[in-house]
């Protein structure tokens, strides 16, 4: 229990076993690792009584979290780059509208909660970013705030319910609304450039990540503030760009798709496992009526935002579910949600929907967090 890598792979193994259990048309898939991570994250701290050792383990889990996120986001960006030109050309404006509608829906629900409940408004501001799993949103909210600890508390409590809402929605929307996923996959054809590359160029892949991290650290000036895309946004844009141009001088950015998919899957299960392991103890031990209320608000905020995105995307914009599933997770800035979309649809169209929506959703989170701070 004191070995972080034993805990990590124990979580992955048991999580994937649980995720493979199918109840009718529903299964957790890779998301099972999040639940086992929460359980083992709680268990290991009950076995270890050294505060120093617990802190060391938490730092290790945080590093695993960051590394796995880089693997996942870079691989999905490079895969999606083959389809995103077609997607943006055909549906471009719809992605922008959906990104802002989804984030705006969450903003409205939190704003109403601030005015009609007696809950600490700064906790609710944190819940807003947590429910839409947006780290840049949190960074915007706490920038220069004297209530940063209260905002961070709300974000921490609201993060897991936000993830769960997206995961459950992605799996449950098709049976509830009678969407035949196989039929959806057969009714859309997106021409992408298929690469016959068999090898994997580690130099090119590292360069994509390196430039992405630099992009993520650039301060983007807005009228009322500055914002950074962070590692996730920066690496995603870098991967989409370089995967699209394919070659720069003698450096080739065409990668073997099977290798990218393997990196994507490895990154995803490590990412979900590390979230659970580093958050499990606090979630379970600090559970009380107040935190339960914040969790419920976070869950409802996320569900409300998802349903708005689904209804507009499906019934007004007439988007195919294989694309819309990724679009919704991009609008929710939810990387774990994308994992659920890929697992449930078995379609790479979800990647393109996510990649096209995510940057605009980040911008929406920044804008709406600033408004919440100004109104509080």
From TrEMBL:
Bilayer topology annotation: Multi-pass membrane protein
Localization per record: Cell membrane
Main location: membrane
Keyword field contains Transmembrane helix: yes
Membrane-spanning intervals of the chain: 6-23, 30-48, 60-80, 92-116, 152-173, 202-222, 290-312, 319-342, 354-375
Location of the YidE/YbjL duplication domain: 8-173, 206-372
UniProt keyword terms in alphabetical order: Cell membrane, Membrane, Transmembrane, Transmembrane helix, Transport
GO cellular component: a single term: plasma membrane
Keyword Phosphoprotein: no
Family the entry assigns: Belongs to the AAE transporter (TC 2.A.81) family.
Protein name, per record: YidE/YbjL duplication
């Amino acid at each position: 229990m004191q070995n972080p890598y034993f805990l990590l792979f124990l979580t992955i193994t048991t999580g994937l076993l649980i995720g493979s259990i199918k109840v009718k048309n529903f299964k957790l898939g890779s998301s099972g690792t999040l639940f086992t991570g929460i359980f083992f994250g709680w268990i290991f701290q009950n076995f270890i009584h050294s505060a120093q050792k617990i802190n060391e383990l938490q730092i290790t889990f945080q590093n695993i979290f960051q590394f796995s996120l880089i693997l996942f986001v870079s691989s999905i960006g490079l895969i999606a780059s083959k389809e995103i030109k077609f997607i943006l050309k055909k549906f471009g404006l719809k992605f922008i509208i959906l990104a802002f509608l989804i984030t705006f829906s969450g903003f409205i629900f939190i704003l109403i909660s601030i005015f009609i409940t007696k809950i600490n408004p700064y906790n609710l501001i944190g819940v807003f970013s947590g429910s839409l799993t947006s780290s840049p949103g949190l960074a915007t909210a706490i920038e220069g705030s004297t209530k940063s600890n209260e905002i961070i508390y709300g974000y921490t409590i609201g993060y897991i319910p936000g993830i769960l809402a997206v995961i459950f929605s992605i799996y449950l929307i098709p049976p509830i609304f009678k969407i035949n996923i196989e039929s959806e996959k057969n009714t859309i054809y997106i021409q992408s450039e298929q690469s016959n590359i068999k090898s994997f160029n580690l130099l090119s892949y590292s360069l994509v990540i390196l430039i992405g991290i630099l992009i993520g650290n650039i301060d983007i000036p807005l009228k009322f503030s500055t914002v950074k895309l962070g590692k996730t946004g920066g690496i995603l844009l870098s991967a989409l760009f370089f995967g699209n141009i394919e070659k720069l001088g003698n450096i080739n950015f065409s990668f073997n798709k099977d290798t990218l998919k393997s990196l994507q899957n490895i990154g995803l299960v490590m990412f979900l496992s590390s979230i659970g392991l580093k958050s499990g103890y606090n979630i379970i031990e600090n559970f009380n009526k107040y935190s339960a209320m914040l969790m419920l608000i976070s869950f409802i905020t996320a569900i409300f935002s998802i349903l708005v995105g689904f209804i507009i995307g499906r019934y007004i914009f007439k988007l195919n579910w294989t694309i819309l599933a990724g679009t919704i997770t991009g609008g929710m800035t939810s990387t774990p949600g994308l994992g659920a979309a890929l697992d449930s649809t078995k379609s790479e169209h979800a990647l393109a929907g996510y990649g096209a929506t995510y940057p605009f959703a980040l911008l929406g989170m920044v804008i709406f967090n600033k408004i919440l701070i100004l109104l509080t």
